[in-house]
Amino acid sequence: MTIASAAPPRLRRMTQSRWAPWLYLSPALITLVVWIYWPLVDAVRLSFYQWNMLPNSPQLFVGWDNYQRIFALPKFWQALRNTGVYIAGLLPLAVLIPLAIAIYTHDLPARSRNVYRAIIFVPMIIAPVVAAAVWRWLLDPGYGLANQAIKGVGLEPVKFLSDPKVAIWTVILITGWKLMGFSTLILAAANANINPSLIEAARMDGASKWEVIRDVRLPLLSSTVLFLVVMTILLGAQWSFTYINVLTGGGPLGSTTNIYYLLWDFGFSTMSVGWGSAAAVILFLGFGALAFVLFRLIDRYSFHDN
Amino acid sequence: MTTDALAQPALVRPITLRRISDRSGLNTAAGHLLMVLLSIFCLFPVYWMVASSFRPANAMFETSLWPMTGSLDNYTQAIDAIPIGRMLINTLVFSAVSTVLQLLTGILAAFAFARWKFPFDKLVYTGVALTWLVPFQVVMIPNYLLVAQMGLLDNVLALILPNLASALAILLLAQAMRGFPKEVVEAARMDGARNWRILWEVLVPNLRGTIASLAILIFISTWNEYFWPLLLSRTAENSVVQIGIQMFMTTEGNQWGPLMAASTLASLPVLIIYIVLQRQVVQSFMKSGIR
Amino acid sequence: MNRKSFLLGALALTLAGPALAQTMAPSVDQPVTITFYNYNLGSAGIGAEATKKLLNEFMAEHPNITVEGVPYSSADGSRIQADLAAGLPVDMVQTVFSDLDFAVHNWGAKALEDIAPADEMAAHFEGMSPNGLKLGVLDGKTYGLAYTFSTPILFYNADLFRQAGLDPDSPPKTWAAVKDAAIAIKEKTGKEGFAAGITGPSAADWLFQGVVRSNGGEVISRDRKTLKFGEPEAIEAVAMLRDLHDAGVYENLDISGAMEGMAAGNVGMYLQTSAVQGVLVAGAKDKFDLRASTMPSFGEKPVRPNNSGSALTIHTADPVKQRAAWELMKFLTSKHGYTIITSEIGYLPLRTDIVDDPQYLGDWVKSHPLVQPNLEQLAVLEPWDPMPGPNYRQIVKTMMDAVEMSVFGGADVAATMADAQANAQALMP
Questions:
Q1: Residue C12 has what pLDDT?
Q2: C84–B contact, CB cutoff 8 A
Q3: Cα-Cα-Cα-Cα dihedral sign, residues C293, C295, C301, C307
Q4: A196 CB near a chain C CB, below 8 Å?
Q5: Superfamily assignment of B76-287 in CATH?
Q6: Is the dihedral of CA B65, B68, B69, B71 positive or negative?
Q7: Segments making up each domain of chain B, as ranges
Q8: How far is C302 from C321, CA to CA, in rounded Å?
Q9: H or E stretch including A60?
Q10: Which residue among A28, A131, A203 sits closest to B45, beta carbon to beta carbon?
């Protein structure tokens, strides 16, 4: 009797579990394939041509020319180096500080916690272009408040955006200023998802506040933290795009350009589909390889409450 | 670990008492000082934007903390120059609908990744994540051509269609769902619940914090979107507020006063959404993770 | 006559046939809608207001014609590219001069000689500055009529001049004098001496071309096949700018920083398009005395500035729409059209005869002295040479990156410019 009734449900479950995940995935997958992957595949093909996008114009096959020209750009290697600097500079601002804020504010009384978190978040609400403009005013060597304060202390005014040595850190600072709220929000939500009884169990065992953080919270937050780290590595260059575009144009002397901005400057913004497509393929493959490696690492090192 | 997690509910009350007495005086003072400094760092440029919106053109670059010659002229100019009311409504519709739809598709897709192991699941997951890396300008014109073929130019629907799903939503939700205690899901399945019920009655209510924070983030990112609406909008009345703001940056110079005014006005709805939704983020902490 | 010359004559006639048959319809006898891609419409300000006013006036005068203004960003033409690719009608465009070559060879801009009756053209061109007419000419044909365009102006702060012991009524006319004045301003007042819109991402190469030309050089050869910005005259011009920087009076400010610095009264002299006059005047109101002068010269050599801005180009192939677009073009470039453009937006009039005419610009010019240097330079204006080929933007960027590196980056001027010229030459068609 048991055997006879056991067989049909298992069969049903097996066939259901074959197509069920695809069913759940389909709305998202269809969207992503139609609006992102299909143009990308087309871009791969177009990267070997020279074309102006018009249906009646000929597509001229140029082989690897577009790729060669991009790699031969004088600022290419500088842009790559700068990308590394952007990532290194953004990690503290986009991951470490928000982590500290999320954990610290978690234990505060409700009112000050909400106020602090809201304040940290407000920069995200402002349009990026406007934020860039306001920062430029505040950092101007002539009339900016920052330099007025510096002059008041007796030091030389700092050319935040026109000094090649300082400019990139300024852009990193502004990008990080905007992003802090983003990461704080994600980390606060993940922190809130931690089962409070786990914390209580550790406290009952006599752990101090710092030990609770170190041994219980951080490991449980590790997957989110790693997620944010990977995001910063992969998207850091893109996040700073608006600020570079509005404030420095990649200068002065190429000190603030990064690989994404450079490829936008010479590829996407230039009407030549070939250059733009080649630029897209380079970005995609480059960061894709990086993403693959990083996701593997996340899988290995993250820790779930299970 | 698992049995401990299930056995502690009775000790909820001592938590609050213990936490208050756990705070040492010095920690609080230093912590608060740092937080205050950070708050000034975060808020000051925003204050500057609002203050500048009251300054006339010949005082735009003055350095006094409070506008000396303040007036509402910039606001009236901004409202006259661009149809900001219409734009705000368009942007609100665009952002709200995109947020809801991205959450829906994200929840469904994340459930697929979290619940099942199926052939190619790692590949598809990576494929989803990689869409984040595709620079927008590459897909911009092909998407435009597709929308034009559909006959949807100058329509809010065209703004929304490419934004139906986002890698951020899927990845964050998948991660949150994977981290959800498996025994709760098992318990529900033992009770005979089908997958659909498990998703909507067990997972989603308990992931309210993540979903609310995701909603805030998606709303803001669509609110601040510029390039796609720029390509699509043919008239000012049908465009979004970001376009409106940047209309004050012209080839004959930038009109900062009305720009700051428009930007301040554009920030208010988002601020309200944040205040409303972040309560959900906080409240989710109040519930213990067990139903 | 013998057969050969008969055949040759017939051949010549058939070849000349298309050139003689102007394609546009004689009049607009049915309702028609034309699209006008315009970047002023994409802004909220005097440019948009004046354009809308002109379009409304035109439509009132021509009830059969509806003009659909489509805003696009002058920084890149992706809207035009996307619409053409989608098959949408692109009938008339306000084309930035540096995009003119690309517009002709890719967007289908039509030569006026090919579509408009010659007598109408001649009648319309009467009263236009001959230099101005040449601005829209490419390969010997008139593809565009200069519409919103201006010349480089040296704005200066008379108050800072006085404080530095300089005479504000005799502004510097040569680059050497600019250097001396800038040094004086920097030393006596501590403010920046000189700023310019020569370099910077949104500058393209329009000011740079004028600087090089004023030193007797050129950026591209007259047959548009060879780049020449690595040649001695150009290198000398760049070296002069480098010298200004080394003297500490020409900083690498970004374009907005320079303009706002000038508007805030923190910069002594600012070389930029006269189009930004409105912003500078608004910033200077009740704060400081803003004046304007012509572009500085290299010693005794004549100043040879080129224009900035855009021209109107017709792209449609439909005869009726061509006629409608031509009527619109004539209206926008009429005496009335330029009166509005000059007095309300601040650009130059292509028609020099309206400048003294009290019915048009006469009184306005008298009450706006800042526009005088602009008008003076109209007499010596030369075309802004657009770069050819599909990689034209990359060519400009390569050149201007080298200029920035040479002037502000301490690089060896001759080597950097020559290098860049070689790289850019490889991108030429």
A1: 54
A2: no
A3: negative
A4: no
A5: MetI-like (1.10.3720.10)
A6: positive
A7: 22-73, 76-287
A8: 43
A9: strand A60-61
A10: A131
d(CA A269, CA A277): 11
Q: How many CB atoms lie within 10 A of CB B171?
A: 22
Spans of chain C, pLDDT less than 50? 17-20
Q: Which of B124, B137, B165 sits opposite A268 (nearest CB)?
A: B137
Q: Which of C78, C391, C400, C428 to substitute to test the interface with A, most A CBs within 10 Å? A: C391
Q: How far is A253 from chain C (nearest CA, A)?
A: 6
Convert the pLDDT of each residue in A203-256 to its tens digit: 888 777 777 778 778 888 888 888 899 889 988 888 899 899 888 888 788 899
Domain ranges of chain A: 73-301
CATH 3.40.190.10 fits C152-305+389-425, yes or no: yes
Chain A CB contacts of C264 below 8 Å: 142-143
Closest CB to B58: pick one of C39, C70, C285.
C285
Burial letters for C164-196: b for 16+ Cβ neighbours within 10 Å, e otherwise? bebeeeebbeebebbbbbbbbbbeebebbbbbb
Contact call for residues C335 and C360 (beta carbons, < 8 A): yes
Q: Where are the domains of chain C?
A: 25-150+308-378, 152-305+389-425
Q: CB count, 10 Å around CB of C307? A: 27
Cα A287–chain centre separation: 12
For residue A280, give every residue at least 6 positions away whose Cβ sits within 8 Å of its Cβ, in sequence order, or none: A40, A43, A47, A263, A267, A268, B134, B135, B137, B138
The CATH T-level fold of domain C25-150+308-378 is D-Maltodextrin-Binding Protein; domain 2 (3.40.190)
CATH of domain A73-301: 1.10.3720.10
Query: Considering only CB atoms, which chain A residues are within 8 Å of B167?
Result: 32
Using a CB-CB distance cutoff of 8 angstroms, which residues of chain A are in contact with residue C397? 265-266
